[in-house]
User: What shape does this take?
Amino acid sequence: MNSLSWITDELAELEQLGLRRRRREIEPLPEGRCRVDGRELWNFAGNDYLNLSQHPRVIRAAHEATTDAGTGATASALVCGHTHWHHRLVEKLAEFEGTESAILFPTGFAANLGVITAVVGREDAVFSDRLNHASLVDGCRLSKAALAVYDREDLESLSAALAGAATARRRLIVTDSIFSMDGDAAPLADLCDLADKHDAMLLIDEAHATGLFGNRGRGLAEQDGVEDRIHFQIGTLSKALGACGGFVCGPAELTDWLWNNARTQMFSTALPPAACAAACAALAIVQSEPTRREELLKRCRRFRAAIQDAELQTIENAIAPIVPILLGNPELAIHTAAALEDRGYLVGAIRPPSVPPGTSRLRITLSSAHDDATIDGLLAALNDALRTAEAMA
Ligand SMILES: *Cc1c(COP(=O)(O)O)cnc(C)c1O
Assistant: This one.
């Protein structure tokens, strides 16, 4: 008897459905390029929107911190893992976000999980957008709060669900600010109004907005002018900031409470000093070079318009450097991505469970490293690759 034969069966089933995932070795190169299987490609698949993971100043900061403090933090922040590199990052984040304080987590995923499970429990109710990131979904489930999934196109239902939970001890609405697979924005002002009306708290995940939106690059809440109305603002250092780690910013009392209650940072080793130093350097660049994000967003608008002109199916009201091309079935997404790779472009082929069934897609992400000519090259290759993949299907 092989007690693990079910694993073989499940992998075979995933394979048959076109849903088996495989990772490949990738060699990051400067200027938005990478090498995969010996081929040099333009990288349109990452979340390094401002190309800061390759910035000389960011790299130098990581070197310096490693030389100074070593490679690992050696313990959780509450034991002895909080070095002056961590302290500097906390101060820098609070200054950047215009809040009194900030708290670090090992990843953005851990931040979402840790905050939601600390804030709500069995006596409470949590309201989650149906397209929220997996880390928010898992945080809600793990919290054991009564869970209601809502559709942001139908806020009346959310309002009714909130009213129905009036006797719960606490009510918490959780949402991505920019949706990671669609690139569109949550209706933050409307959600703030609903939170006020129903005495609920609002948690937003700015993973794909930090560094990109708002006058100072703080995110969508800044752009929408609602920062003061959000109870829990969560971000990641791993996307536009090119480093690694998660954070929450807010009043000192809130972060102090989280230091004492969020299990994903209490019981996990603190970030490596290099990640803290890199994130600090990246934040300084976000602050001093607003044209980086402005130009990127301008190119995104141009690219999106071209996608719509080509009558490819995308998400109409998206605003982020995330441009989905909806294809429907997972094999078509895989074949189109492979055909694009033959033409020199790496893009994401996204399938369930990352997106709902029937909405498999290419996920194209733009970064500051891609100029107009490169993007035009991608567009031409995209049309060509789609024809090739459709002919194969
Ligand atoms: C990537 C992502 C996260 C997780 O952040 P990590 O720092 O990579 O763990 C959380 N939320 C959203 C919306 C994301 O896209």
Residues 211 and 217 are 4 Å apart (CA to CA). Residues 107-109, 112, 133, 135, 176, 180, 205, 207-208, 236, 238, 246 surround pyridoxal-5'-phosphate (CB under 6 Å). The mean pLDDT is 96.
